[in-house]
Amino acid sequence: MLTIDSTRGLDSSSSLKFVQALRISSDMGAHAHAVAMYQASQAIYDTFDKVTVLYAGRQIYFGPASTARAFFERQGWFCPPRQTTGDFLTAITNANERIPRLGMESKVPRTAEEFERYWRASPEFQELLRDMDRYDAEFQQGVRSNESVAALREAKNRRQAKHVRPKSPYIISVPMQVRLNTVRAYQRLRNDFSATGAHLMTNLIIALVIGSIFYGNPDATAGFAGK
User: Fold this and answer.
1) Does residue 53 contact residue 90 with C-beta atoms inside 8 Å?
2) Which of 52, 57, 65, 187 has the least C-beta neighbours within 10 A?
């Protein structure tokens, strides 16, 4: 599941609890969460297994979160002592924030293309390719692959409501979706009637103002311009 900016508006403690809930969900359900968020604390960052760094649409790192900082430090960049790893990785993609180590000013990559070339030539990238090959050999070929697909399909069918076709990608049927959305719409109206009333009153006032412009106009082409 992909989650983008899911901690917007949350304080640091609530953000950490939310990410920890995703971690527990992944561990118990044996699935993965892809999360993009801004200003992740060190505790939040340490919750994840892997991290990817994108720069101008190019991938410049993907691998264990625990080794990302060392990768860019070896590249020649300086991480201030009190800076979190997440902020450090974000700063790498900003020319105004990243700081090269003393003596490495002319050796570090500068453009997104140079960062990508360094990443593709690194041992970390080669290890990533080997991991992908091992995964393909284990899950995308032979009996293990068929077993995984069958287990996924069976789990989906168990979650489906009655009268839903087994081959349907939905957990509930389309009529059930319409019914639930209709009930939800009326619940929103009932529980927040002040907002609905204000919206209706605003529309009524606007309608009266616009309608008054054409009130009493002559029934001729001269009345097209209004008052």
Assistant:
1) no
2) 57
Do 12 and 115 share a domain, yes or no? yes
**DSSP-derived 3-state class of residue 113:** helix
What's the pTM?
Answer: 0.61
Spell out the residues 6+ positions from residue 47 whose beta carbon is closer than 8 angstroms to its own.
16, 19, 20, 22, 23
Going by C-alpha positions, the residue among 64, 29, 7 that lies closest to residue 159 is 29
Please check whether residues 108 and 23 belong to one and the same domain: yes
pLDDT in tens, 118-162: 999 999 999 999 999 888 877 766 555 566 667 777 777 777 777
Range of 98's domain?
Answer: 2-135
Number of domains composing the chain: 2
Specify whether 128 is located in the same domain as 46: yes
The single residue listed with the structure tokens 């839903």 is 164
- Which residue type is seen at 57? G
